[in-house]
């Protein structure tokens, strides 16, 4: 007979201790029913300091000595090794297919009849024949089906705006549908409706408001491009102001005088400042996140304004003059500012510059359209020299300075002044 201490471990890892004196010749298999009530299909293992005891051996044969501590636990079947194919069966990410389909359907209303009004009216004071016919009571010249499609698009935009209060993914969808409904009148109406369809703060509101303001000022496309370029230059400072990020005080300049609030904060005790350190850090991090989102939205909006202005200056199939071509190519040169920027800024500015350059060159006489293929070699161009970077910065500055008079010339102001004399 051998006196042992057996700890019975359950599924939760808790154990109960049994002190027993058992025969050393009885196999472990015959001892288990006296220790636990095993359910059908369960397999229990008795283990000691030397490892798991074989079920057909007795305690003497297994080398168990009197007074040893044994553990009785349910045996677990090890998982089979995962083969290479099994590694492909991981957790599935969120499926965005329904959102992609909905945005494609909303975007189709901009180009497919009977939803599409055709060529958009860019001038803020011009309205389409369809809108004029509805306003004067003569009816929509495009037919009842087109009018019903426009009304349905507007209703869906309102529904998506209401749904955006519960899910932010609906925000961009609501803005796109509202723009599609408003562009039936003109571009300004579409931008205003898109801004009104954004019912929650975020990048979508910044983009739509900027586009609405630009559309309202779009009396001369050249000036619209200049507005977009200027907005792109000051996007960083504007984002800091809109996000409420305070600029560092520089006493030597005299521009950042200490306010009463800052004086009170400096006068508080160290203990009070330590108590508010966590809240202050969270507030700063939130302000930084807002600034980055607002900056990305401003960059995208300004690039959109620039692209829209260039399309107005060079309509599809037209033959632009040398002043317009030079002005648009200076826009492409200012895209060099994408070096060393954040991904959203870099991608938006680079794509806009390439599109403007390609759009301008393909409307020029031969052989200039062949030059439009030059952006293909951009991945092979790497600027590592500080001197080359400085030259590029100077070139960008000169291009912006040259763009101002060139785009003003596209408005006809200079011809008007010369005609006065």
Automatic annotation (TrEMBL):
Q: Which Pfam families match?
A: EccD
Residue ranges crossing the lipid bilayer per the database entry: 98-116, 145-165, 172-200, 206-234, 294-314, 320-338, 345-378, 398-417
Q: Name the chain's protein.
A: EccD-like transmembrane domain-containing protein
Q: Does the keyword Calcium apply?
A: no
Keyword Transmembrane in the entry? The reply is: yes
Keyword terms, alphabetized = Membrane, Transmembrane, Transmembrane helix
Q: Which residues form the EccD-like transmembrane domain?
A: 144-420
């Amino acid at each position: 007979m051998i006196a042992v201490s057996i700890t019975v471990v359950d599924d939760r890892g808790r154990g109960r201790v049994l002190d027993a004196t058992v025969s050393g010749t009885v196999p472990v298999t015959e001892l288990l029913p006296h220790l636990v009530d095993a359910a059908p299909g369960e397999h229990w293992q008795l283990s000691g300091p030397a490892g798991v005891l074989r079920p057909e051996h007795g305690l003497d044969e297994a080398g168990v000595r009197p007074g040893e501590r044994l553990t009785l636990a349910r045996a677990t079947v090890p998982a089979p090794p995962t083969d290479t194919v099994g590694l492909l069966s991981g957790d599935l990410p969120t499926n965005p297919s329904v959102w992609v389909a909905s945005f494609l359907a909303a975007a189709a209303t901009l180009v497919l009849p009977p939803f599409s009004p055709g060529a958009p009216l860019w001038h803020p004071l011009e309205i389409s024949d369809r809108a004029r016919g509805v306003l004067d009571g003569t009816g929509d010249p495009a037919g009842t089906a087109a009018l019903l499609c426009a009304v349905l698009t507007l209703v869906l935009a309102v529904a998506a705006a209401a749904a955006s209060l519960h899910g932010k993914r609906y925000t961009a969808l609501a803005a796109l549908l509202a723009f599609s409904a408003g562009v039936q009148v003109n571009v300004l109406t579409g931008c205003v409706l898109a801004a009104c369809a954004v019912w929650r703060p975020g990048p979508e509101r910044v983009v739509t408001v900027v586009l609405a303001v630009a559309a309202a000022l779009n009396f001369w496309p050249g000036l619209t491009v200049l507005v977009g370029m200027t907005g792109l230059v000051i996007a960083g400072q504007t984002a800091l102001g809109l996000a409420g990020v305070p600029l560092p005080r520089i006493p030597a300049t005299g521009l950042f005088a200490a306010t009463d609030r800052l004086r009170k904060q400096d006068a508080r005790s160290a203990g009070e400042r330590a108590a508010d350190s966590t809240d202050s850090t969270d507030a700063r991090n939130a302000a930084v996140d807002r600034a980055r989102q607002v900056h990305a939205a401003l960059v995208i909006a300004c690039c959109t304004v620039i692209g829209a202005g260039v399309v107005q200056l060079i309509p599809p199939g037209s033959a632009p003059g040398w002043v317009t071509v030079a002005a648009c190519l200076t826009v492409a040169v200012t895209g060099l500012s994408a070096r060393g920027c954040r991904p959203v800024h870099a991608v938006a500015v680079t794509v806009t510059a390439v599109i403007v350059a390609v759009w301008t060159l393909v409307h020029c006489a031969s052989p200039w359209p062949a030059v439009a293929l030059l952006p293909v070699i951009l991945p092979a161009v790497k600027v590592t020299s500080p001197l080359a970077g400085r030259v590029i910065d100077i070139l960008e500055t000169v291009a912006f300075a040259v763009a101002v008079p060139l785009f003003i010339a596209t408005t006809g102001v200079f011809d008007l002044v010369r005609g006065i004399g």
